[in-house]
Amino acid sequence: MDRALYIAMSGAKQSLLAQNSNANNLANMQTTGFKSDLEWFRNRPVTGAGLPTRVYAMTEKPGTDFSTGTTQTTGRNLDVAIDGKGLIAVQGEDGKEAYTRAGDLRITPEGLLQTGTGLQVIGQAGPITVPPSESLTIGSDGTITIIPLGSGNSTTLQVLDRIKLVNPDMADMQKLGDGLLHPKNDQPLTASADVNLAHGVLEGSNVKGFSAMTEMIDLARNFELQSKVMKTVSDNSAASSKLMQLA
């Protein structure tokens, strides 16, 4: 069998893998704080006997686009967005500390402060729990201030906790399958006083819809091209078999 058939099949498979990543980006265009995945094609030479006349196509994910998404003013008391660089510490589904830019916070009936996806927000001593209160305010440094319920004095402010904000070198961070950011060394980060929060706004996804749609079309055309190559190789093989039968 001509190696071209296997190479075309490999190229078609890699196109589908890249399309999956691109489709995931498109599906998260409206996800708060989402960071798009990057992928590229790389040529790999075919090793073995014979002349180096063919190469494989390989799809790789060199990293994540950490650029800031567009911000939208909501006016909601629990909506926050990081002003500039930085990340919010949350407790991942595996119980370990992870990080996100999503600031769509909420308080559960049990008093847990969570993100919109149900991840618990971490404070100075672990996940933050909010007792019944008349009002809650989140300061620019992440400090949570409440007026206790039934205090009888609307000016009685109580500092509850402070959201853990970190400011790592993004080259040391990686996005895993849970959609959260994790340090490459798998060690919790130290809180930073240099991170500021904007109140009543949200940072949206950084996926560029037009670019993602254009890439989807290009990948679809590339898959079609690889399929045509496989069909051509198959036709040539069938024609060669007929010629051998006539010999």
Walk me through the structure.
The chain is built from 2 helices and 18 strands. The longest helix has 38 residues. Strand 7 and strand 8 form a beta hairpin. Helix 1 packs antiparallel against helix 2. It is elongated, with a radius of gyration of 26 Å. The chain folds into 2 domains: 104 residues, no CATH class; 133 residues, no CATH class. It has 247 residues and is an alpha+beta fold. Strands 5, 6, 9, 10 and 14 form a 5-stranded antiparallel sheet that branches. The chain has a 3-stranded antiparallel sheet with strand order 11-12-13, with no helix packed on it. Strands 1-2 form a two-stranded antiparallel sheet. The mean pLDDT is 86.
Radius of gyration based on Cα positions: 26 Å
* Extended strand count: 18
Helix content: 25-40%
What's the number of helices?
2
Q: Would you tell me the structural class of the helices and strands?
A: alpha+beta
Strand content: 25-35%
Mean pLDDT: 86
Give the ordered list of helices and strands: HEEEEEEEEEEEEEEEEEEH
Write the layout of secondary structure elements.
Blueprint: H1 3-27, E1 37-45, E2 55-64, E3 71-73, E4 80-83, E5 87-91, E6 97-100, E7 106-107, E8 113-114, E9 120-123, E10 126-127, E11 133-138, E12 143-148, E13 158-162, E14 165-166, E15 173-175, E16 181-183, E17 196-199, E18 201-203, H2 209-246
Antiparallel strand pairs: 1-2, 3-18, 4-17, 5-6, 5-9, 5-14, 7-8, 9-10, 11-12, 12-13, 15-16
Helix pairs in contact: 1-2
